[in-house]
């Protein structure tokens, strides 16, 4: 599978990851699609998305919203994409709609069939086994507007992901605490950083830390 | 201080002195006294500022540019002292209500006379502002703005007063509109609606302030560069008052010149009249086209009421914006049915015809029948501008940028017209269920959402290539609305041919632009995709959504403060920004601050009603 988990940040900060994403498609004229977490701001997110990838020569773009009714044609075109990018926003809202539409399974199939699947912040969390990391720390967490109880997600990787990580004591304490309760390692990336999975290889771009069973380990920029 | 022009030194001493120039003074009182009824007014106690439009106040120079969006006690006091007014009306005078001189404001305030079809007198001798007064004018950066307040007391110009032949006490519960009061939800509806429309290029009155009183009553303060309506002229025309009409027209033209809204106005009086008529014809043709294309229902009629001279929307009571082209909707106004959105053009044209009659009267001093002007050149000009504007609007909505629109209109007019024909076929399609009753009238539902196809089509071409057209089912699947039944969307040969024609004409335009500007088609489609995704946003406000949003605002507990309403309005309108050329905000949906949550609720309402009335 070809996956990229972005933490967040500006186009400039994410330049390296974006470049890798384009290369992963292995196409001269790839088609990129954005699924924003919510449609209310879709046109704004879409503009940022196009502005980020157009400089790499990408010309084919689609914006697909999951929380509004969509046509079969739009879905069919989405699944023909070379890269699908899951946007940031409220993780629970996004997950709820991906599940209720059944798109979550379509995206897993897309990734299994060789499509490049990227996620930023909420989108990245959704690629992991579950979305617990959206619930903490208490000072910077997503609201759970539907009070969702089943927080299982795409399970495309066997680790948890924490975006927008700031290397400070209060974040560290929260993540160390959480890491003791889970069986998977937890990777936390600062904005501009992220994790690239290309079939059997894993790479860390930017500052990423691993929290595992109450211990913290830093990964240097590659 | 009041009524005088402020020096810079005076302005520097207090940031709010400009409020004091709003004291009832207005040139209409001086130059056309026949056009107004003047009232003394007193301060109305018990008011609270429920809303204040800080942006608008800065725009018209009422507060300094760097004023924060917060109240000071002085600002609240100035707002209340300036706008919390109650007129001393005829009922008060006849019943001998004693009012001390010191309670009265020094100047008079005018209720203006204008034609209104709901009045028994069809010449406008008794009609006009029934519950409003004009507060005056304010000038800033070379522009002068009119200010008026609704809910300041019952005047002699209300329909009730003239139908029942009696003067009403302000607040008389036996009459609604005639009682002279207005309500807070009216003010907030106008506020939310007008700010959304204004931001997207529609000319409209705007709400400066809402002052609330007990029992949901309020005074709603409106602002526009010029609050004259066609009906302000038509009453004098109907009455054959040549001198009054002449002074009205001159006053209006001077105002437009001074505000630099009209440039190069001829000095010669006869040429000025022609210039006036040409401007009016152009304005009403453009707004008719815009109303149709933006699905704005604004009840126009022969009296020239409910619309401003510059085509701006006024009185949001019956104004709606439809989600689809519900061209059969009619509002039930008890005694009569409103016009439909399609008929607005004819009414606008009739208003121009009446202006042609008026200008002829001014030029010849002989009043002829309005029927004699049904083939007047100003109406031919109207038709020409209307068609031109319809084509331009469609190209803009499709997602072409202004340069490309200009090129297509100039060089590919026939292709644009052909595309418009296909577009109209789907836009006009109605439900097989036939006419239905709706809460405030009747409708025959439109079934296709043209915004959806304009938004999705370029993305699909971009994805699969322009050679692969959408089939019947794919096309219909994208643009069908919730009103479309199985019967409505079933295959027909005509529909199939129209779908083919729609796409072939669409791509003809795309290819023409790509060729002319030497752009790869993919690059152009991407640009169209980006513009169209903003212009044809999935969620767009409708009249019903505004009504429900205001209920939400009104019922919020604890009650929203004026500052909170201002913040919510700003955030809400930013989500309804449909201008692709404006700089867009950073997405804010990740944040969960308190008022954002309320705005989300509002956006959900917009979504729920997006295809409705």
Describe what this molecule looks like in 3D.
The complex is a heterodimer of chains A (222) and B (613). Chain A is 31% helix and 23% strand. Chain A contains seven helices and eleven strands. Chain A has helices spanning 15-25, 42-53, 72-78, 91-101, 103-112, 122-126, 169-181, and strands spanning 2-6, 31-35, 60-63, 83-86, 116-120, 160-162, 186-189, 194-198, 201-205, 208-212, 215-219. In chain A, the strands form two sheets. A seven-stranded mixed β-sheet of chain A has the order 3-2-4-5-1-8-9, sandwiched between helices. A four-stranded mixed β-sheet of chain A has the order 6-7-10-11. In chain A, helix 2 links the parallel strand 2 (31-35) and strand 3 (60-63). Chain B is α+β, with helices and mostly antiparallel strands. Chain B folds into four domains: 8-224, no CATH class; 231-386, no CATH class; 399-535, no CATH class; 543-608, no CATH class. Chain B is 46% helix and 11% strand. Chain B has 22 helices and 15 strands. Chain B has helices spanning 8-13, 27-31, 54-59, 73-83, 90-94, 159-163, 184-199, 231-238, 242-258, 269-293, 344-364, 377-398, 402-411, 413-428, 450-464, 472-479, 486-489, 493-516, 521-535, 543-555, 562-575, 594-608; strands at residues 36-39, 41-43, 48-52, 85-87, 109-112, 132-140, 143-150, 182-183, 206-212, 217-224, 296-297, 320-321, 330-331, 436-438, 441-443. In chain B, the strands form five sheets. In chain B, strands 3, 6, 7, 8, 9 and 10 form a six-stranded antiparallel β-sheet that branches. In chain B, strands 13-15-14 form a three-stranded antiparallel β-sheet, with no helix packed on it. Chain B has a two-stranded antiparallel sheet with strand order 1-5. The two termini of chain B are 48 Å apart. The A-B interface holds A 31, 37-48, 50, 54, 59-63, 65, 68, 71-74, 77, 80-81, 88-90, 121-122, 142-143 and B 456, 459-460, 462-464, 470, 474, 477-478, 520, 522-523, 526, 529-530, 533-534, 537-539, 575, 584-590, 592, 600, 603, 607.
């Amino acid at each position: 599978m070809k996956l990229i988990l972005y933490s967040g940040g500006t186009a400039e900060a994410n330049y390296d990851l974006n470049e890798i994403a384009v290369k992963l498609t292995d196409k001269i004229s790839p088609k990129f699609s954005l699924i924003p977490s919510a449609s209310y701001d879709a046109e704004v997110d879409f503009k940022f998305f196009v502005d980020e990838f157009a400089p790499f020569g990408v010309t084919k773009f689609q914006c697909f919203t999951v929380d509004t009714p969509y046509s079969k044609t739009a879905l069919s075109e989405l699944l023909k994409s070379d890269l699908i990018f899951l946007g940031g926003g409220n993780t629970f809202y996004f997950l709820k709609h991906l599940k209720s539409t059944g798109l979550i399974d379509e995206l897993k199939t897309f990734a299994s069939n060789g499509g490049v699947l990227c996620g930023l912040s909420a989108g990245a969390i959704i690629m992991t086994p579950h979305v617990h990391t959206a619930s903490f720390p208490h000072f910077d967490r997503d609201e759970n507007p539907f009070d969702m109880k089943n927080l299982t997600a795409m399970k495309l990787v066997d680790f948890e992901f924490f975006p927008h990580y700031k290397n400070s004591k209060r974040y560290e304490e929260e993540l160390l605490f959480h890491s003791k309760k889970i069986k998977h390692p937890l990777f936390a990336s600062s904005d501009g950083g992220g994790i690239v999975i290309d079939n059997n290889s894993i790479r860390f771009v930017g500052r990423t830390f691993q929290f595992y069973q109450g211990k913290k380990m830093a990964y240097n920029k590659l | 201080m009041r009524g005088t022009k402020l020096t810079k030194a005076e302005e520097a001493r207090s940031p709010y002195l400009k409020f004091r120039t709003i004291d009832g003074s207005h040139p209409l009182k001086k130059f056309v006294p026949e056009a107004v009824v003047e009232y003394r007014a007193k301060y109305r106690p018990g008011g609270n500022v429920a809303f204040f439009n800080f942006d608008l106040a800065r725009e018209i120079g009422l507060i300094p540019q760097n004023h924060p969006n917060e109240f000071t006690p002085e600002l609240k006091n100035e707002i209340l002292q300036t706008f919390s007014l109650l007129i001393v009306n005829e009922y008060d005078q006849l019943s001998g209500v004693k009012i001390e001189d010191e309670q009265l404001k020094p100047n008079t305030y005018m209720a203006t006379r204008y034609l209104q079809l709901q009045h028994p007198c069809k010449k406008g001798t008794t009609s006009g502002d029934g519950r409003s007064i004009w507060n005056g004018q304010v000038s800033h950066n070379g522009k002068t703005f009119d200010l008026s307040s609704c809910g300041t007391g019952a005047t002699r110009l209300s329909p009730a007063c003239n139908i029942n032949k009696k003067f009403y006490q302000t607040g008389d519960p036996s009459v609604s509109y005639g009682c002279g009061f207005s309500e807070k939800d009216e003010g907030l509806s106008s506020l939310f609606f007008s700010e959304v429309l204004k931001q997207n290029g529609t000319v409209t009155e705007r709400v400066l302030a809402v002052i609330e009183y007990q029992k949901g009553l309020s005074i709603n303060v409106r602002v526009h560069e010029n609050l004259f309506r066609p009906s302000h002229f038509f009453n004098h025309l109907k009455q054959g008052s040549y001198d009054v009409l002449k002074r009205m027209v001159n006053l209006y033209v001077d105002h437009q010149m001074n505000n630099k809204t009209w440039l190069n106005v001829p000095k010669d009086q006869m040429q000025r009249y022609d210039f006036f008529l040409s401007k009016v014809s152009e304005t009403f043709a453009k707004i008719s086209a815009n109303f149709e294309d933006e699905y704005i229902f604004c009840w126009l009629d022969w009296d020239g009421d409910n619309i401003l001279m510059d085509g701006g929307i006024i009185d949001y009571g019956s104004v709606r914006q439809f989600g689809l082209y519900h061209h059969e909707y009619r509002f039930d106004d008890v005694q009569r049915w409103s016009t439909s959105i399609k008929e607005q053009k004819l009414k606008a044209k009739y208003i121009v015809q009446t202006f042609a009659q008026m200008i002829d009267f001014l030029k010849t001093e002989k009043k002829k029948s309005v029927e004699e002007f049904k083939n007047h050149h100003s109406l031919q000009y109207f038709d020409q501008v209307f068609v031109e504007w319809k084509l331009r609007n469609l190209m803009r909505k499709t997602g072409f940028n202004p340069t490309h629109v200009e090129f297509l209109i100039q060089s590919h007019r026939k292709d644009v017209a052909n595309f418009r024909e296909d577009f109209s076929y789907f836009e006009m399609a109605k439900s097989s269920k036939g006419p239905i009753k709706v809460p405030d009238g009747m409708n025959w539902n439109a079934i296709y959402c043209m915004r959806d196809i304009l938004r999705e089509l370029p993305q699909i071409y971009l994805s699969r290539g322009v050679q692969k057209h959408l089939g019947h089912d794919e096309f219909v699947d994208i643009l069908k609305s919730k009103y479309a039944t199985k019967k409505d969307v079933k295959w027909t040969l005509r529909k199939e041919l129209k779908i083919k024609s729609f796409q072939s004409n669409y791509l003809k335009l795309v290819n023409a632009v790509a060729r002319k500007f030497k752009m790869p088609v993919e690059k152009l489609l991407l640009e169209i995709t980006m513009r169209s995704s903003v212009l044809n946003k999935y969620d767009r406000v409708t009249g019903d959504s505004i009504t429900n949003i205001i209920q939400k605002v009104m019922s919020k507990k604890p009650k929203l403060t004026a500052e909170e309403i201002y913040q919510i309005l700003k955030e809400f309108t930013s989500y309804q920004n449909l201008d692709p050329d404006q700089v867009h905000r950073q997405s804010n949906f990740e944040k969960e601050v308190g008022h954002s949550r309320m705005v989300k609720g509002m956006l959900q309402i917009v979504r729920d009603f997006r295809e409705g009335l």
